[in-house]
Design brief:
The complex is a heterodimer of chains A (316) and B (281).
Chain A (H helix, E strand, L loop, with lengths): L1 H28 L15 H10 L6 H13 L13 H36 L4 H15 L2 H15 L16 H34 L3 H8 L4 H30 L2 H6 L5 H10 L3 H29 L8
Helix pairs in contact in A: 1-12, 4-5, 4-7, 4-9, 5-7, 6-7, 7-9, 9-12, 11-12
Chain B lengths: L2 H12 L2 H18 L35 H37 L1 H15 L3 H11 L4 H27 L3 H8 L4 H37 L11 H8 L8 H28 L7
Helix pairs in contact in B: 1-10, 2-3, 2-10, 3-4, 3-6, 3-8, 3-10, 4-6, 5-6, 6-8, 7-8, 8-9, 8-10, 9-10
Classes of the chains: A mainly alpha (316), B mainly alpha (281).
Chain lengths: 316, 281
């Protein structure tokens, strides 16, 4: 077990290093001169050179990279070119909105996916299975932004049941208000996750039902439902941990489109604003942040999986 | 590829009404996109008098906020969406097959290096890179195709690598090696044909995801530039008129959905037919 953790950690460090290089190259390749945002009309050329020197932009690229990396490691992701606020602070400010939305969407998807997937796997070619198959097909083919627009049209414009924009009604701060705002974006994201989870659970149910322990339970006289929801479920839940770990990487990128449609004030919409305004430090901060989440999410999933299922030895 | 595999696909298709419907629909959509130029209307023709008209005999899908005919725009939009889908798939497949084959066939440090490279690219959320690059490159159809294919080849490379590793242990490959055939000859004559079925299956699914990526990008306003229509950018325009012209949002979205759905269904049928060992989902 310990060997597995050490090995995965050792793999992760160079990955993080290379991802940071890619991020740095993307900033450097960005069109435009970063000094520009500090220049005012009555500056002399010497002043501009001084700013360039102070920002370290006159040094060779590889030295700039190490300076940048050192700053990142100490939590300084730079400052926004537009509002001159620290990047990391802005990301952390927006984190609760995105994390809350994502966590509830994932929770909703898992709650729906477990019974659906188990029943579909156990009753192949019956109506549950057909339903799950349909969800899977529709889910991977449905553009989520279109679904979002249709939901806004029906639930907000037509029926006036739910708000279509933002996270709070101005002037109120109740939790209920946030939940009402969250229902639509959360449902859209949940459908995306549900598709993936339900297929996964269905196929692992099918393979679990072929295992010996299922036959033994039958021989002991257990009925199908007990076997399915007591014994098979335990084994099926394990791989979900991996899926949850992988979903961490989607935290930011997966929410960009949905957050934009619903004007949800999370990291995704921060990223969109930054891209629109060509605010490179913010863009890079978000890219780095979500890549690190993705890598750490996978690492965490592997380690947790190793703990709950000791059959997976460090040989992987 | 053996004849029998295609017979499998045909058999699978025959028993599958959904599959037949998907093939016919794709055929119709492709024809409509290819022959869009025969339409008597100009997709970018503004008409101040015909703004936001609901669907009618004259304008099947209605008109948008500039009075442009939505049906004609959808035809031309489909052209771009399908072109992006197919061409991105071709480029991504070419890169993926090359990298996967080299990695799987030669193994060793080349394999290690290439696969770590794939891991690194896959650990940066691809949609973010897509957004970033489309800002840098001032997108047109060509650059979008390049960006999407550069983000899609990794999964094909992994599949092809795994398949190559099993193929190169086959006896006929070992004999070919023993009889002194050149490495290139072995890859070309013995490995590549064996990869065909896996590649076809993942290529079909890749068309679907490329179309989806392009639509999302255009929907956010970073794809193909106005006034040229794509299904995604039409939805972007529709967002502001949900109150007075909801039909603007229905048709382009439906087209993306149906097209992507058809490619996914087709991909599944191909997989069941060509790769029977993987079995039904």
């Amino acid at each position: 077990m310990r060997r597995l953790i050490v090995r995965r950690l050792l793999q992760t460090v160079p990955m993080l290093f290379f991802v940071s290089i890619v991020c740095f190259i993307l900033v450097k390749a960005a069109p435009g001169d970063p000094v520009r945002s500090f220049v005012t009309p009555n500056m002399h050329a010497a002043d501009i050179e001084r700013i360039r020197h102070n920002l370290g932009l006159d040094k060779p690229a590889y030295i700039q990279y190490f300076i940048w990396l050192k700053e990142c490691l100490t939590g300084n992701f730079g400052y926004s070119l537009i509002n001159h606020q620290p990047v990391l602070g802005q990301i952390l400010d927006r984190l609760p909105a995105t994390a809350g939305l994502m966590a509830s969407a994932i929770a909703l998807a898992v709650i729906l996916a477990i019974p659906l997937g188990l029943l579909a796997g156990a009753n192949r070619s019956r109506w549950v299975d057909k339903l799950v198959n349909m969800i899977a097909y529709i889910g991977i083919s449905l553009p989520l932004f279109w679904l979002a627009i249709l939901m806004v049209y029906f639930f907000s414009i037509k029926m006036h049941w739910l708000p279509s924009m933002g996270m709070r009604t101005i002037g109120t701060s109740s939790a209920l208000d946030i939940i009402r705002h969250g229902i639509l974006p959360c449902s859209v994201l949940a459908i995306g996750f549900l598709t993936v989870y339900v297929r996964y659970i269905r196929s692992s149910t099918i393979s679990q039902l072929k295992e010996d322990y299922v036959q033994i339970q039958y021989a002991f006289g257990s009925n199908k439902r007990t076997i399915l929801f007591r014994h098979v479920m335990k084994h099926v839940l394990l791989p979900i941990i991996t899926l949850l770990g992988m979903s961490m990487g989607d935290l930011v990128a997966g929410a960009i489109v949905t957050e934009t449609v619903f004007s949800w004030p999370g990291i995704g919409s921060l990223g969109m604003t930054a891209v629109r305004g060509m605010d490179y430090p913010v863009i890079m901060g978000i890219t780095l942040f979500s890549s690190v989440l993705l890598i750490l999410g996978n690492l965490l999933a592997d380690i947790l999986y190793g703990i709950v299922d000791p059959r997976i030895k460090s040989t992987r | 590829m053996k004849q029998s595999k295609w017979a499998n696909v045909a058999r699978e298709l025959k028993g599958n009404k959904l599959g037949i419907a998907a093939v016919i629909l794709l055929f119709v959509i492709a024809l409509a996109a290819i022959f869009a130029f025969l339409s008597s209307r100009d997709p970018n023709q503004l008409n101040a008098l015909e703004r936001l008209k609901p669907p009618s005999k004259d304008h099947w899908f209605g008109t948008d906020d500039y009075g442009r005919d939505t049906f004609t725009r959808a035809l031309f939009g489909g052209r771009i969406s399908l072109m992006v889908g197919v061409l991105s798939m071709l480029f991504a497949t070419a890169i993926g097959v090359t990298v996967g084959m080299i990695s799987g066939y030669f193994g060793g440090w080349i394999d290690g290096l290439l696969m770590r490279f794939v891991d690194i690219i896959m650990s940066i959320p691809s949609f973010l890179i897509l957004l970033l690059l489309s800002v840098y490159l001032k997108p047109n159809v060509g650059s979008i195709i390049v960006i999407i294919s550069l983000l899609m080849w990794m999964s094909i490379a992994r599949v092809v690598r795994a398949e190559t590793m099993t193929l190169k242990e086959r006896e006929y490959v070992l004999y070919a090696k023993a009889s002194g055939q050149s490495t290139f000859g072995i890859i070309w004559k013995h490995i590549l044909p064996g990869l065909l079925s896996v590649v076809i299956v993942s290529a079909t699914n890749n068309i679907a995801s490329a179309i989806m990526m392009e639509s999302s990008l255009s929907f956010l306003g970073f794809g193909v530039r106005q006034p040229n229509a794509t299904w995604g950018s039409m939805l972007n325009g529709a967002q502001g008129h949900l109150m007075d012209a909801p039909y603007m949002a229905i048709f382009p979205g439906l087209l993306i959905f149906v097209t992507v759905l058809c490619f996914n269904i087709l991909g599944d049928i191909l997989r069941i037919g060509l790769e029977p060992k993987l079995g039904k989902r």
